[in-house]
């Protein structure tokens, strides 16, 4: 289980998270929604230790990352894979080198073993035969799928997605949604996705939580969120310009 307890975080004196609390059950697909700048991605990066809280606790399977020894933090991080917004591929490396990067750096696998694993991961995301291509030769959707292949290359237990459909056309966005859901089921993962794409949220989530005013405002099943009577959640889900959420938030 993943648990964030009383998380506070500020950047240059500006508070981003204010006593945020969240529990994520093993094996579930949780989606975090909220407006741009609401702290969704900051919350996500606390899970993997890319950002440390000013105060509070980040507990992964009983290990408190804010207090753990360095070797325990490193061991815990190996449970994670992450698809960054924009895929974050290394432009100078081939697709093979991008997907196999962690396998080359952090395992003792032979070249042939890495080659087999890279091919396996690319196949799982619907790509094959592109190992020698460079990121500059790929479409936006292909980059996302290569980034996803890299994220699963180390057989993670927990997969994090930061705005996975941003920059994609609706059809490719839906393909990515299907991949997230199918990999979650096939690999028996715990998945955490940050998005403001409500179509994506409702398709891939077991539960949805909304970040608002630097806290977790509400959490529930997609049906709970869709039928919420809270005016903030109603406005966000419907995408209506009229309501308590203003253009300055």
From TrEMBL:
The keyword ATP-binding applies. This is Organic solvent ABC transporter ATP-binding protein. Residues 2-238 form the ABC transporter domain. The keyword Transport applies. GO terms for molecular function: ATP binding; ATP hydrolysis activity. InterPro entries: AAA+_ATPase (IPR003593), ABC_transporter-like_ATP-bd (IPR003439), ABC_transporter-like_CS (IPR017871), P-loop_NTPase (IPR027417). Keywords: ATP-binding, Nucleotide-binding, Transport. PROSITE patterns: ABC_TRANSPORTER_1, ABC_TRANSPORTER_2.
């Amino acid at each position: 289980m993943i648990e964030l307890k009383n998380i506070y975080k500020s950047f240059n004196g500006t508070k981003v998270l204010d006593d945020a609390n969240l529990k994520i059950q093993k094996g579930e697909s949780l989606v975090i929604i909220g407006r741009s700048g609401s702290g969704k991605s900051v919350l996500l990066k606390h899970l993997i230790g890319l950002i440390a809280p000013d105060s509070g606790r980040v507990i992964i399977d009983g290990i408190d990352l804010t207090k753990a020894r360095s070797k325990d933090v490193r061991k815990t991080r190996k449970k994670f894979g992450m698809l960054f917004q924009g895929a974050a591929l290394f432009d100078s490396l081939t697709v093979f080198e991008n997907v196999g990067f962690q396998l080359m750096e952090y395992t003792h696998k032979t070249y042939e073993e890495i080659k087999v694993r890279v091919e396996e991961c690319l196949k799982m995301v619907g790509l094959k035969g592109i190992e020698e291509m460079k990121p500059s030769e790929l479409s936006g959707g292909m980059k996302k799928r290569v980034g996803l292949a890299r994220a699963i290359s180390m057989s993670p237990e927990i997969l994090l997605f930061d705005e996975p459909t941003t920059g994609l056309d609706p059809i490719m966005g839906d393909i990515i949604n299907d991949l997230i859901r199918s990999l979650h089921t096939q690999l028996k993962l715990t998945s955490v996705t940050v998005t403001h794409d409500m179509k994506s949220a409702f398709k891939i989530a077991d539960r949805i939580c909304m970040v608002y005013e630097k806290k977790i405002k509400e959490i529930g099943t997609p049906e709970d969120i869709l039928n919420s009577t809270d005016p903030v959640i109603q406005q966000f889900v419907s995408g209506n310009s009229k309501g308590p959420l203003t253009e300055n938030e």
